[in-house]
C-alpha cells in the first residue's frame, strides 16, 4: 500500500479497480464541474454540460473501437443481467422465434436461462457443469433459423475466453456477445457483430452502467412486452436520454475512455493484457504443479485467471494462507468465486503491469516458502 | 455564487442539487473509502464494506419513513420509467388483470400508457391535456376488480401535488404511488400503500438509482415475461444484490439519508418544504398578477412550482429576461419544461430556506423593475 492515498491493489472481478488518475480528477471537480457551479451528479441530463459529457463518451468509444456508422452505441441501466432479457426481447420479434446460445460458463448459462422466457432459444451443446474449454465447433448443433448466435466472450468465474470470433456461425446470423469482462482489453472487429454489450464496472467504469453496441438494422422489432427502458430503438432514438440516465457513471466512463486513449488505445490495452496474463500464467506453469490452472491452454482468459494453490484440487489451508498474506501485502479481492473456489486474479484495464508484477513476485515467493 | 466552491443555486427538476456537506464528504474519501484502500466505486458489491453501506441505507430509510416490516425496501436500476413497466409486470399476474390509473399530468400519463402493454389498465377519468387540478374523487370511475390504484403524488412538470392520500379508493385495493419528486419531503403513512417508488435524483440522491417500497405479500406473482432485474421478489430475496447494483449511487443516497437524519428527519424536511414553497407562492400571490400559478390552490406543489412571468399566459421576453438575470445572480435551471413553458422552481430537500430566499427576493426585485 505504498502510495499517497494508501490504496490497495484491487484484483476484484467487478466492481473493479479504476485508474487512479481518473479518481483524482473526479475528486477534484466533484463539487464544481467545469465551472458549471454544480457537481456532475447535480447536472440536469438535459444540460449542455451533460450533453457534452455523453457525446464525448460516445465519440471516444466509437473511435477507440472503430465502431462503424451501421452500429448505435447505447448507455443503459440494468447491468449485464438486464441485457440477458433485453437481447431476446429486442432481437426476437415474438416468442416463437429462435436463437442459439453457446454455454461456456455461469454467465452464458444464466443468459440462456433468462432468454427462455422470451423465445425458442436453444443451447447448441449438451448441458454440462464443467467449463474449462470451448466445445469444438464441429459439435455445435446450430439452427438455420436462429435470429442470433449468443456467446460470452470471457467467462469471469471460469476463466474461459475466446481468442477469436467464432468463425463457423453462418454470416447471415448476427453474432451477439457479452464482452463485459474483456471489453476494450483487445481489438474487436465490431462490424462482424449484431450486438456487443459490456457492464462498465470491469474495464471502463463503475456499477450501474452498461454499454450496448447494436447494429441499427436490428432495431425496431422489439416484442410488445419489452419494458420501454429496455427498448433499444427508444434508447437509440433518444441518444440514451429517453429518461434520466446514470449521469455520474457515464461521466466516469468518459474519463476512463480518455485515459485509455492517453495510454495508447486498444492496442496498448491488448499488449498490456498479454504481458500481464503471461506473467501470471508463467508463474503457474513454472510452479511444478504448486499452482494449477484448470482451463485449456487455447482459451485461457487474459483478464480473469482462476487458479488453485497446492495442486490441481487446491489445498484449502494453503489457499487461505495465500489470501491472508496477499492481503497483508496490499492485494485484495483475490478469492475465487464460491462456485469454483481457489484464487482468481482479475487483470482488467486499470490493473497495471507493475500491479501484476507485485502479484507475480508474491506467487513466486509464496511457492518457495510453502512447497515441500 | 458566493461560496468557497463557487457553486450555483441549482433549481433543477432532476438530477438536482445535493447537500454540499455530502459532496464534500464523498470527495474526501473518493480515493480511499473508510480505510478500505479502494474508492467506493471500486468496492466489490459482495464486500463487507459495501454490505455495510447498503444495509445502513436501508435501515436509515426504514427509520426515517417508519417503513413497517410488512414492506420490503429495494434499490434498483432503470429509473422511474423502469417502474412504469415493473409495476404492472409484478402486480398484475397476467395481462387480463386490471388496474386503475389516475392521470394528473405527464408522468402519470406516461406510466399509464406503458402499463397498457401488460394488462387491462384503465384511466379513471376522461382524457385531458389540462393538468392544473386533481379531478374530484366523485368523478372517478373506479373498477372493483383493480389489482391496484396508481397515482403520481407530485407531477414535476405541472406542479400538481396531492396533499393527502386518496381516501376514496377501497381499502382492499393497494395504493401505488410515484413519489419521485416529493419523496421524503413530507411524512407518509407507508402502511397505507401497496407500493411507493422514487427515483433518487430529486430528493435523496443521484441518477441511476430508484427506491421501491413494496408490501411483501404482493410479491411472487410477477408475469412470466418479467425481466429478472425487474422482478421485485428476486430483488427482495437478494437484498437488492441479485446483480451488481449502482453501488456509488446507493452510497450517495446513504450519505443523503444520514444528512436528512442530522437535519431532523422528515418532519424537518416537511417544515422546510412548507416554508420554502410558501415563500414562492406568496411572491406569486402578492405580485398583482405579474407572476401567475396555473395550479388550483388545493393541490399546489411544495416541491416543483411552475409559474408564468408577465401575466397568466406569460410574456416570453420577460421570462427570458427573468432566466438570464437569475442566472447572472447564480440561480440556474429555472426554465419551465418545454411542454408548459414559463419558469419552474424545484425546491427539493437540498434547496435550503436561504437558497429559496435568494429566489424570492430576486422575484420581488424583478417584478419591481419590470412591471408597468
Automatic annotation (TrEMBL), chains A, B:
<comment type="similarity">
    <text>Belongs to the class-V pyridoxal-phosphate-dependent aminotransferase family. SerC subfamily.</text>
</comment>
<keyword id="KW-0718">Serine biosynthesis</keyword>
<dbReference type="InterPro" id="IPR015422">
    <property type="entry name" value="PyrdxlP-dep_Trfase_small"/>
</dbReference>
<comment type="pathway">
    <text>Amino-acid biosynthesis; L-serine biosynthesis; L-serine from 3-phospho-D-glycerate: step 2/3.</text>
</comment>
<dbReference type="GO" id="GO:0005737">
    <property type="term" value="C:cytoplasm"/>
</dbReference>
<dbReference type="InterPro" id="IPR015424">
    <property type="entry name" value="PyrdxlP-dep_Trfase"/>
</dbReference>
<feature type="domain" description="Aminotransferase class V">
    <location>
        <begin position="10"/>
        <end position="355"/>
    </location>
</feature>
<dbReference type="InterPro" id="IPR000192">
    <property type="entry name" value="Aminotrans_V_dom"/>
</dbReference>
<dbReference type="GO" id="GO:0030170">
    <property type="term" value="F:pyridoxal phosphate binding"/>
</dbReference>
<dbReference type="GO" id="GO:0004648">
    <property type="term" value="F:O-phospho-L-serine:2-oxoglutarate aminotransferase activity"/>
</dbReference>
<dbReference type="InterPro" id="IPR020578">
    <property type="entry name" value="Aminotrans_V_PyrdxlP_BS"/>
</dbReference>
<protein>
    <recommendedName>
        <fullName>Phosphoserine aminotransferase</fullName>
        <ecNumber>2.6.1.52</ecNumber>
    </recommendedName>
</protein>
<dbReference type="InterPro" id="IPR022278">
    <property type="entry name" value="Pser_aminoTfrase"/>
</dbReference>
<dbReference type="InterPro" id="IPR015421">
    <property type="entry name" value="PyrdxlP-dep_Trfase_major"/>
</dbReference>
<dbReference type="GO" id="GO:0006564">
    <property type="term" value="P:L-serine biosynthetic process"/>
</dbReference>
<keyword id="KW-0032">Aminotransferase</keyword>
<keyword id="KW-0663">Pyridoxal phosphate</keyword>
<keyword id="KW-0808">Transferase</keyword>
<dbReference type="Pfam" id="PF00266">
    <property type="entry name" value="Aminotran_5"/>
</dbReference>
<keyword id="KW-0028">Amino-acid biosynthesis</keyword>
Amino acid at each position: 500500500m505504498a502510495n499517497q492515498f494508501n490504496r490497495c491493489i484491487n484484483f476484484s472481478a467487478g466492481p473493479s479497480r479504476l485508474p487512479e488518475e481518473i479518481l483524482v480528477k473526479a475528486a477534484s471537480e466533484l463539487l464544481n464541474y467545469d465551472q458549471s457551479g454544480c457537481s456532475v451528479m447535480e447536472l440536469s441530463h438535459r444540460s449542455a454540460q451533460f450533453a457534452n459529457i455523453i457525446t464525448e463518451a460516445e465519440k471516444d468509444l466509437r473511435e477507440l473501437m472503430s465502431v462503424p456508422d451501421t452500429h448505435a452505441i447505447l448507455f443503459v441501466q440494468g447491468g449485464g443481467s438486464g441485457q440477458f432479457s433485453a437481447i431476446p426481447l429486442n432481437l426476437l420479434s415474438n416468442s416463437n422465434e429462435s436463437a442459439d446460445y453457446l454455454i461456456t460458463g455461469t454467465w452464458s448459462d444464466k443468459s440462456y436461462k433468462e432468454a427462455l422466457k422470451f423465445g425458442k432459444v436453444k443451447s447448441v451443446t449438451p448441458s454440462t457443469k464443467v467449463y474449462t474449454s470451448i466445445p469444438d465447433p464441429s459439435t455445435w448443433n446450430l439452427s438455420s433459423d436462429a435470429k442470433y448466435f449468443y456467446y460470452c466472450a470471457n467467462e469471469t468465474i471460469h476463466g474461459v475466453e475466446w481468442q477469436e470470433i467464432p468463425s463457423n456461425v453462418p454470416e447471415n446470423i448476427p453474432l451477439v456477445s457479452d464482452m463485459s469482462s474483456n471489453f476494450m482489453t483487445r481489438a474487436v472487429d465490431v462490424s462482424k457483430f449484431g450486438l456487443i454489450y459490456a457492464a462498465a464496472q470491469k474495464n471502463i467504469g463503475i456499477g450501474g452502467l452498461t454499454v450496448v453496441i447494436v447494429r441499427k438494422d436490428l432495431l425496431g422489432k422489439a416484442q410488445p412486452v419489452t419494458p420501454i427502458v429496455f427498448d433499444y430503438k427508444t434508447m437509440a432514438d433518444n441518444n440514451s436520454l429517453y429518461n434520466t440516465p446514470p449521469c455520474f457513471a457515464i461521466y466516469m466512463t468518459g474519463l476512463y475512455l480518455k485515459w485509455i486513449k492517453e495510454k495508447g488505445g486498444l492496442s496498448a490495452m491488448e499488449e498490456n493484457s498479454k504481458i500481464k496474463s503471461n506473467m501470471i500464467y508463467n508463474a503457474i506453469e513454472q510452479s511444478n504443479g504448486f499452482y494449477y490452472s484448470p482451463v485449456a491452454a487455447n482459451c485461457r482468459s487474459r483478464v480473469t485467471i482462476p487458479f488453485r494453490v497446492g495442486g490441481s484440487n487446491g489445498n484449502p489451508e494453503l489457499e487461505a494462507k495465500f489470501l491472508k498474506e496477499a492481503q497483508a501485502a496490499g492485494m485484495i479481492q483475490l478469492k475465487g468465486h464460491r462456485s469454483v473456489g481457489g484464487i482468481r486474479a482479475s487483470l482488467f484495464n486499470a490493473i497495471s503491469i507493475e500491479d501484476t508484477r507485485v502479484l507475480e513476485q508474491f506467487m513466486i515467493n509464496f511457492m518457495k516458502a510453502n512447497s515441500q
